[in-house]
Amino acid sequence: MKFIANISFIRDLTARFKSSSYWKDIAWLSSGTALAQVIMLTTMPLFTRLFTPSDFALQNLFGQIVSLVVIVATLRYEYFIQLPMQDADALLLVKVVAILSFFAILTLTPVLWLFRNVIALSVGDAALSPWLVFIPVTAATMSLAIALQGWTQRKKLFRRSGESEIMGKASYAVTILLGWLFLPGAGGLILSWLGTSLGKIFWLLRDVQWIIFGGYPELKRIARLYMRLGGSLVISHGLLACTVAIPSIFIARIYGSEILGQYALAYLVICFPSVLLGNAIGNVYYQRASERWAQGFNFADIWRSTAKKLIFMGLPIYGVAIMIMPWLFPIFFGDTWGPAGFYCAILAFSAFFSFITTPMDRACLIVGAWWYAPLWHAARTATTVVVAWVTLIFQWPINSFLTCLVFQQIVLYLIDYWVQWHFARRLPPLVRQTS
User: Fold this and answer.
1) Helix H segments across 51-157?
2) Can you say whether the dihedral through the CA atoms of 95, 100, 101, 105 is positive or negative?
3) Residue 83: helix, strand or coil by DSSP?
4) SS3 of the chain: helix, strand, coil, percent, to 5
5) pTM (2 decimals)?
6) Cα–Cα distance, 53 to 72 (Å, whole number)
7) 93, 81 in Cβ contact below 8 A?
8) Which of 12, 342, 364, 366 has the fewest CB neighbours in a 10 Å radius?
């Protein structure tokens, strides 16, 4: 009887899943992302044998600078495509992103070229200098790709959005291989950021030829409407980029590029579950929660359902990762990458809390709490600086530094988890006034 009851429970759970458009949309999006990650996982053992840890260190540092430039390139308007009540306004936001991307390339490219040597030395690796000229175009295409994905997700075309992830990762792999054949050093790894975004844009732009057109008064209106939220995200994402960049730059300057390369691969691998599942869940959650808020309701039930699923999926994934990564890395990536396996096991603890909180961290945007994200990210940046400073004072080894960093991140993620839940329980202003 117990066996039959378990079978009935599983059937009931499957039926509920099939009847839920929310989780079907997540399935479409995550399946595309899953295939994209299969491409990455199957090619990464080849890349770790073609390139050295120092090459991966350059790729990591390039990505840290891109993550800073992408914030100012389009002022984060690409993250608001889901928010307008009318599709016409959402299209205007996509056009704003396209125009800002174009001007970012024109204005920032000569600046990065002039100061390339100074920037490369300041982040700890002079070999990065000749590649910095590609940062503006990489940042601009990343923003445009996010905007186009936001539009397809707003229209509930989650299958197409998932397909773009596959195209992006295929372009990523092709860029690296061509770079290894024709470019010096880490060129292929560095330009893979650009290749990924161009692959996504190529797939998403097929039916969006209108993107470069639009009247100035309407574009100005929509830009001003979301200027405050844009300012909030510029500050919070700037702080986030600094928070992510601080450990990389600190490791490069204190422990050397070889250690940074090991850390970069460990960080990349431990982020796979978030890229594979967390981002897909977060994008669908954002679309559904925004829609619910626009209809005059809170979205606490969506938050609860999503939170339970994230914990249910995250515990076994990261529990297994902690146990197997130290011995799996040398087998999968090559003997050179043994230390990265230990770093990955350490990072898995905070990665779990990131996995269960980050997909739902845009509740503050939905309810208009523009002040929260900068405040939380400021606290995280400040505490990251404290961790680096304490490590420097006591001259801790890399494992101690990473352990302290992980503890600090867990505390901040738990705070964010609690606050986002309270945002999800809020009612829209008009509902509060009438009640």
Assistant:
1) 53-74, 87-114, 116-123, 135-154
2) positive
3) coil
4) 90, 0, 10
5) 0.79
6) 30
7) yes
8) 12
